[in-house]
Amino acid sequence: SDVGSQKERVVTEEEWLQKWEMGNIGFHKEQGHPLLQKYLDVLLNGRSGLRIFFPLCGKAVEMKWLADMGHSIVGVEVSEQAVKEFFSEHSLPYCEEPVPEISGAKMFQSTSGNISLYCCSIYDVSSSIVGKFDGVWDRGALVAVNPCDRQRYASLMINLVEKNSPYLLVTVSYDPNKHKGENF
Length: 184
Hints:
Blueprint: H1 13-22, H2 34-38, H3 40-44, E1 51-54, H4 62-68, E2 72-77, H5 80-89, E3 94-98, E4 106-110, E5 115-119, H6 127-130, E6 135-138, H7 150-160, E7 167-169
Parallel strand pairs: 1-2, 1-6, 2-5, 6-7
Antiparallel strand pairs: 3-4, 4-5
């Protein structure tokens, strides 16, 4: 299988931070993802005021879009630069505070309180810290997770969502011998 050739490859947190610092963020999309728009009804299922989780959120514009609809957004991102750029680019005032349960972690929250972004490793969060979610929008997290960490990631996601909650996942399938990039 093509995935076999990537199984041993690992991208470190330092490499992700360097991508943000160098502006090498081709994975970031300036426009909302068309699949989220197409399947929004699946995510919301007629409900309002949901808690929606964005794993490895970067500065995803969809966070603001869903927050403007009245939902509470929680994201986790290792790059503080990405988190600060999100608030800056949307002209959203925010406050910053440490997360006592996670050494070195910070939580950035919009002053309106409906967007909370945790700056730390995804594997440092748990439902006891960030709570449970009514839905997940995973546009680029699973494909960014190292193959050796996928089971750990999947277990974490299962722990973070309420039972029977929708999980919208965008993934890619390609021959890694023909296309090089940060996606797995």
